[in-house]
Amino acid sequence: MFIKLLFLAAFTVVMLSVGLYSRRKIKTQQDFLFGGRQMGPWLTAFAYGTTYFSAVIMVGYAGKTGWGFGLSATWIGVGNALLGCLLSWLVLARRTRKMTQDLNVSTMPGFFEKRYDSKAIKIVASIIIFIFLVPYSASVYQGLSYLIVTTIADPLYALTGISISFETIMLIMAALTGIYLLLGGYVATAINDFIQGIIMLVGMLLVVFFIVNSDIVGGIGEGVSKLSQIPEVGEGLVKPFSNNPFGLLSLVILTSFGTWGLPQMVHKFYAIKDNDAIKKATIVSTVFAVVISCGAYFVGGFGRLFVTEAEIAGDLDRVVPMMFEKALPDYIMGIVIVLILSASMSTLSSLVLVSSSSISLDLIKSTLFPKMKEKRVILLMRLLCVAFVITSFIVAMVPSPIMTLMAISWGTVAGSFLAPFLYGLYWKGTTKAGAWAGIITGFVCSVGGVIIFGTQNSPTIGAVAMLASLVAVPVVSYFTPKYSQTHIDTVFQDTSADAGEAISTKMAG
């Protein structure tokens, strides 16, 4: 217990220290949001990876998919690394960075306004972001709390009689996130993400080693053999693609391509320094994803060897915390707590930053008070950060499966934005009506699907929402009026070869 608390205390001190250090670097709203668009490859790559993978993946998804799909759940991790990281960086990073700088926009709704010449799209996008990123944030709080209750609160109560409630832990996490983000903005987030990313890499490698070599698993070969012998479900747990390949594919699509339409992920491309940094960050973030995502889902596949249905009482969010508590030595458990705390705090800070900036810049300043001074904008963003944290905490208090909250959030936000954003970057023929069709189709499919078919089908519904939106945008754009050549020339400024940047780089050399 002392070791666990020591690691936790050290982590908290480091986070707050980085926040205080970064506070001095925040002079403008660009500093608060992007670190002045001067973030290097390592900071950006780790910021991307740690935002991508949180307690939702490591606790909720890894536990539930491992329980249902067995070792084939590892394919989700492979999809996350190759599609959610590598392909995302290759397709989106360079074009996103250049176009957002050319158009002088700071948020995804701001990009929609300039690209599609529509303030209405910007307003609707801002509202969707603020409302539907709340469930995702709430799911992160829940994942963290499950871990800390199982590994610290319950053992502490057994030793001392001191009781720490689930709600108290969530409140502490919310307060900690808010404090360091308010102090240092994106600079604090990026520096902390780098530190946290190193912890995550080391921690995940240790987790895989100790779980696989535990007495319960007995090595990969023995573990596979034991899984296959579990009555009724054993054969499906060791199949290459499980007994439900369609469900597995839906999760790969949702958790991999979903990142392409999530503002907290795309935001990282706005802030990176230059194209050379993008090349390096692409490699770093992909390697990071292979270790973290594949490791988490692979370990989750052994869940049924560690816990029984009676022990979890139907709550699959308890599978991974109980696995860790049974298999890992205390000093490794301390690292794992910090690992998942690191991943979750970085995700939370990115969610809070993106949501608050969407409302403050795209709705309040741009629409209601266009002459608002920069200092007031920064203050407003900080106040909205607090509002988002409080709202997420309230939603997290309502008992819901972690995987369900995350799937609803990702399905709705990515379903609404992926197609208008992707086509908007590359296809000059995308029209305003086409963009609206993509947003409406994705939103209706996600929200309507959950209402009609229930939350238990939310991963599949989210995947369908993204695919339907990708079809709707080009179909409607083909039959609706195109933009003037002047507008197209303004939006697509030498994007085909990034000519302007190439020339300036050669001149500087």
Task: Describe the protein in words.
By secondary structure, the chain is mainly alpha-helical. The chain has a single domain, classed as Sodium/glucose cotransporter. The chain has 24 helices and no strands. The chain is globular. Residues about 500-509 have low confidence and may be disordered.
List descriptors.
disordered C terminus; 24 helices; 509 residues
What structural category characterises the helix and strand content?
A: mainly alpha
Mean pLDDT: 81
Strand content: under 5%
Sheet with most strands: none
- How many β-strands, per DSSP? 0
Report the CATH C-level class: Mainly Alpha
From the alpha carbons, calculate the radius of gyration and give it in angstroms: 22 Å
How many domains comprise the coordinates? 1
What best-fitting shape do the alpha-carbon axes yield? globular
Helical residue percent?
over 70%
- The CATH homologous superfamily corresponds to Sodium/glucose cotransporter
In the CATH hierarchy, the architecture is: Up-down Bundle
| First-to-last CA distance | 56 Å
Briefly say what this structure is.
The chain is mostly helical. The protein contains 24 helices and no strands.
